[in-house]
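[job 0412] stage=fold_complex status=start
inputs:
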Amino acid sequence: MPRILTRENAIRWAPFMVLLALIVLFTAINPSFLSQRNFARIAIAAAPALMVAIGVTFIIVMGSIDLSMEGVVSLTAVLFCFLMLALGGTLASGGWIAIPVILAVGAATGLVNGFIHVKLKIPSFMASLALGFVGTGAAILLTGGDIVKFDDPTFRALLTWRILGFPLMVYVAGLCLVLAWFIQSQTRLGRYFYAVGGGEELAHASGVRVQHVRMAGFSLAGFFYAIAAILQVAKLGQAESVTGSNFMFMSITSVVVGGVALWGGIGGVWNTLVGVLIVAVINNGMVVIGLPDFLQAAVLGLLVIIAVILSTDRRAVAFVK
Amino acid sequence: MSTFIKDFIEREIVNRRNFLLATAAGMGAMAVPFAFGGGAARAAISDPAIAWSYRDRASAYWNSIVSGGEAFVESLGKPKDSLVSLINEGSSEKSLADIKAFLAKTGGKCAIACDANDSPNARPVVEAVRDAGAYISTIWNKTDDLHPWDISDNYVSHMTWSDEKPAEQTARILFDAMGGKGGVVHLGGIAANNPAIERLNGLKNALKDFPDIELLDAQPADWDTTKGTELMASFLTRFGDKITGVHCANDNIAYGVIEALRAEGIENMPIVAYDGNPEAVKLVMDGKLLATVFTNPHWGGGITAALAYYAATGAFKPSEEPKEHREFYGPTVLVTKKDAADFKAKYLDAVPSYNWKDFWGPSNGQIKYK
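[job 0412] stage=fold_complex status=done
writing structure:
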């Protein structure tokens, strides 16, 4: 019988244990935390963030970084609303066409991002940050700084229609998670992400077309950012040039807290799921237990550090930069 | 006292003395050019260039400010784009640098309207403008010890808005709708922002007259819609049915609160907001919001530029005006269901045309410091 309590297993399950510990902690202080209704609230908060975090997971697994999410989410959210309104303002009147179009726009922005990074040889950090600013700028240009309301009841069913107590958007996010898992573990592209992240020269020497893999990765990330934008519009009923705000911190923190190593090659979408839930549970729990607001930022920072300490295998790396 | 500490203190004192001497020498050198002309206010610039210095274009508020500035330059027979936008993107350093660049470019022949981004930045900005002989009017941010009349005629005026009274009025409307009893939560702005503090104080003032209403909690939602939904959802877990009313620090937060409640199937919660944005006014008309407060940023944007412009052309002399014409509160208009339709027709459907020489008509009295 294989041993269960190995060091590897401990590290693999550490983020999940952190999540359980947080739930136990918050429930002990305020029992109403542990209720189906509250879990639905946490799930609504986490669904768009999970999509962004999954997108950036692929990039981080490759050992790169993508900081364009805020701009891309804002731009695709605004475009989505405009397109929906132009197509009649309801899903039934042909507005559904906006969904595939916006997903393609997201993938295309990601591709541009990857192209700038790979072909112009600009570090992914800089290329994606700059492209993110372009996205935010374009969103401001399109909206003139105003809010675009979009309130089709059929579309908003993503938020208002509940199955087993959870809104439809939570199930959509779940399906996208399964899709991401499939890409990660069952496709060649998924394996190439790990190959590039684990050792780029080695992957190149083995015949992996590293440049293509990188561009495909950024494009896939853009696709998931566009899903996030659509879910965010479903959640808020509006889009504006700041719709994507806070996603950068939230997603990268979640990815790292979940145990995906920033140096690449380690972790995957399940880690990201746990990471997103940890951050969402902390955010919700701090208010639910009545922590004073001036302590919340500090406590969030401390909990993130503790979660990272527990959930990364620091013995596996010689140095951290 | 050990010799180490003594040596250290002596060394520091010498350093400070050297520093002061060096500073004095530097200031002296800077003052020399002014001793030979320049410096003093040059009245009557014939055709001053006009600029607005503000934070960003990503908000309805600042867009409205700029639209007022543009309406003013058009009233002079100039094209819209003759109003120069100096966008500081939330950086005080950029705010000051842009204004200095504009002063240099126009040789001081300019009139500037400005929100200095944060209070301490107002002094260097107005001093730079005074030293160049140009004219400036500010809004929102300045420290309490900085007054236009202490600087010179070049610092024409300062306008700000007192949010405490209007926030108290919205709270009273909310409490009446709650039947004078129950629990209220407050979703605030960024905790350290002055308007956020004033709007919460307004709520607390109203609470004194409603002993049966409990303030369950007040937490910052950073003026943000997404933060508003998530905070409201957490409040629902913590307080559940105890929440019978919601007081929001601005409209954006209220949009988020309405969506968080909608996700739970809660439709008729009494909610009040602040800012009077077009979407919020529509929500008031639909009965989803009880009230919001309009601060007329269009007028504010136009009149601030107009004050600086007409002082520069010599149309009026700031030092001959009373103090309430140099530091004053801007207008606030309460919007409730009763008057929302009229309000929309008057302010939103067609932008009213203002007399930009009526500088103080809609203003709200001299600024009082606590």
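[job 0412] summary: The CA atoms of residues 165 and 274 of chain B lie 12 Å apart.
[job 0412] exit 0
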